[in-house]
Amino acid sequence: EVQLVESGGGLVQPGGSLRLSCAASGFPFSMYDMHWVRQPTGKGLEWVSGIGTTADTYYVGSVKGRFTISRENAKNSLYLQMNSLRGEDTAVYYCVSGQAGWAYWGRGTLVTVSS
Amino acid sequence: QSVLTQPPSASGASGQRVTISCSGSSSNIGTHLVYWYQQLPGTAPQLLIFNDNQRPSGVPDRFSGSKSGTSASLAISGLRSEDEADYYCAAWDDSLKGHVFGTGTEVTVL
Question: What is the pLDDT of residue B2?
């Protein structure tokens, strides 16, 4: 059974940092692109960042220079280092993967940026 | 502000057919594959349609996807109460060099 389990969310002040983690199991992690998708409460989905099997990385414009995605294949883990956090970064962050479409989603971890 | 536009809501009586549109451009839908996701209340999204019109195993054939030019559509036939959810289209965008989601459509079964 495929599982994606996010952790690391919480309350942080504007300008602060958080590191999200995603533990994957049930599929060959190193062979899959991995992504983070976020959703503010009551709003739509937004793709945040992705990392390929060769560690090539992609970001949505609003987080470039502030967020860093990485992966550790030996630990079947995905990370998102978030710096200089802003109020508009407040959302549930999902760890996501799949080959033809994103068939694998975690339950999400809530990040709240507020003073 | 998404580059893929969907109607905010759609509705139909039980058993009827509902169609949701997703309007994009040549840099996304016009060039790349389209995906549809269903998000039931309080849950994570799940893949509904991949590669424009393919259904993952387990998705009923009441759900179908299509694409023409820079627009895509999701049709739900034989509408059921358990279809009440938010639906999102998605595609890669060459101009943004990233994935984009549609604005989302809330489906209500009357």
Answer: 77
Average pLDDT of chain B is 97
Distance CA A105, CA A114 (A): 26
Q: To the nearest whole percent, how much of chain B has pLDDT over 90?
A: 97
> Is the per-residue pLDDT at B1 higher than 70?
no
CB nearest to A45's CB, from B51, B96, B101: B101
> Cβ–Cβ of A45/B103 closer than 8 Å?
no
How far apart, in Å, are the Cα atoms of A17 and each of A11, A66, B16, B20, B60? 10, 9, 49, 39, 43
Is residue B72 within 8 angstroms of chain A, CB to CB? no
- Residue among B47, B99, B100 minimizing CB distance to A103: B47
Cα A39 from Cα B44, distance rounded (Å): 10
| Contact (Cβ atoms closer than 8 angstroms) between residue B12 and residue B18 | yes
Tell me the per-residue pLDDT of A55-80, one tens digit each, with 9 for 90 and over. 999 999 999 999 999 999 999 999 99
**Cβ-proximal residues to A64 (8 Å cutoff; 6+ apart), any chain:** none
CA distance A106 to A93: 9
